[in-house]
Amino acid sequence: MELRHLRYFIAVAEELHFTRAATRLHIGQPPLSHAIQMLEADIGASLFERSKRWVRLTEAGKLFLQDARRILALSEQAAETARRAQRGEAGELRIGFTFSTPFTPLFAAVVNRYRQQFPHVTLTLHEMASSRQLDAITQRDLDLGFIRPPDGLPGETTAPEPLTYIHLRTDPLLLVLPVAHPLAAQKKVAMKELLNVPFVMYPQHAGTGIYPQIFRLCRDAGFVPHVAQEAGEASTIIGLVAAGCGVSVLPGSFDRIQMEGVCYRPIADTDATTSLLLAQRKNEQAPLIDAFVMLAAQEADAARRMASVPAKGKKKTF
After folding, report:
1. What's the half-sphere exposure (Cβ side, CA atoms, 13 Å) at 284?
2. Domain final residue pick, 34, 54, 86
3. Residue 169 sits in the same domain as residue 106
């Protein structure tokens, strides 16, 4: 059974006239009659009653007409779905993100705009540490990932070779302190001032980019941090800092978590920053992925331009 035979059948069923149906289909009447005969042979049932003066649907033909219309509608729907997928407008996109990413306005802006522009795409989001995202992208369990540089360097990464990265934004690192800590009285704190101060950190095996970066910052300041407590969630780390278990260093986006007994202070060291990157497989041509990457890059550029406006365009008032 061919789809074109179903189209021929529907035309004859609606016109109840082979000549008019042939004209509508832009084919000759003999090929149309032959196609209907082939269709009836395939089905094993007569679909039309014919005479020299009229054409009528049989009972089998009436029931078959309903299903034929549904089959053609489904075939058109399937074709349109395939066309949307080819244009990057349908399918599933699997995206990873770090624990700090949802606290950045950029993430919400990108996801919201993508959902508005591509409503037929199923966007599946997975929270996981940077190094685990990179593994998942390499293994094709994820398509894209919002990551922090896994080696802790603000603008570089030693991640797997098959991946490539787009820099989205740079965030300052903040020192998380109990409000009663002596350093809380300072506007800025240098890393060297944290010598012999206990730290609350993510576990080393958690795969976060912030863990090696804290060690690098401390090493550059001349000491190795004393890890007094480990926790797997940023909110837990902040809560442990509030409980007096130590201090911590986190991406600046976490300052939106306001907790009693905790304060945030900028770090004076110039390299105390972290980048937010969008990771993807290198040289992969996929419309779904390309559309999201382009949109994320556009939003990142727009955010950078907006951030530069106050410094350049703010008018003086007297």
Report:
1. 20
2. 86
3. yes
Number of domains within the chain? 2
pTM, 2 dp: 0.70
Burial class (CB in 10 A: 0-12, 13-18, 19+), 185: exposed
The tens place of each residue's pLDDT in the chain, 318 residues long, gives: 788 999 998 999 999 999 999 999 999 999 999 999 999 998 899 999 988 889 999 999 899 999 999 999 898 888 877 777 776 666 889 999 998 899 999 999 999 999 999 998 999 999 999 989 999 999 999 999 999 986 644 444 444 568 999 999 999 999 999 999 999 999 999 999 999 999 999 998 888 888 889 999 999 999 999 999 999 899 999 999 999 999 999 999 898 888 999 999 999 999 999 999 999 999 888 888 999 999 999 999 998 888 776 544 444 332
Alpha-carbon torsion angle 311, 187, 151, 217, nearest 10: 130
Look up the domain containing 187 and give its range.
Answer: 91-301
What's the Rg (C-alpha) of the chain? 32
DSSP per-residue string spanning 252-282: GGGGG---TTEEEEEB-STT-EEEEEEEEET
Q: Smallest Cα–Cα separation from 241: which of 191, 194, 176, 190?
A: 176
| Residue owning tokens 């990265």 | 165
Report the relative pairing of strands 91-97 and 144-147 from DSSP bridges. Answer: parallel
List, in order, residues 6 or more apart from 258 with CB less than 8 Å away. Answer: none
Residue pair 299/109 in contact (Cβ under 8 Å)? The answer is: yes
